[in-house]
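Working notes for the structural subgroup meeting. M.R. asked for a predicted model of this chain before we commit to crystallization trials. I am recording the input and output together here so anyone reviewing the notebook later can reproduce the run.

Input as submitted:
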Amino acid sequence: METYATIKGQIVIPASLRRKYGIKNGTKIIITDIGDAIILKPVTEQYLRTLQGSLKNKGGLQVLLEERRKDREREN
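Returned structure, recorded in token form:
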């Protein structure tokens, strides 16, 4: 498949891929630069289900609280 970027940097994701990955109007897309390629990952319910429990017993809450503390310090 091939698509083109507009002058604003927008691209069209073909309908077959939108259906396959559950991309609808307003779907958030995570963009990752891996050096020689760009990965687009839609944040859908299916994707969120795959993450469920991935931080269990890994201190996820502590990491979140620490990040929030750092954000507050930057704001002040």
